[in-house]
Design a protein that fits this description.
There is one protein chain. The chain contains 2 helices and no strands. It is mainly α and about 35 residues long. The chain has one domain. The longest helix has 21 residues, at about 15-34. It is rod-shaped.
Amino acid sequence: MSTTYPELRRPDYRRLAIALAGLLSGGLTAFLLT
């Protein structure tokens, strides 16, 4: 994991939003399938 300091200092909102959306959709599909 090679990350520059500016990237580490500023939070990556796009990656966070994608991860959150993926988690939400995964939970939703799991809830619908069960």
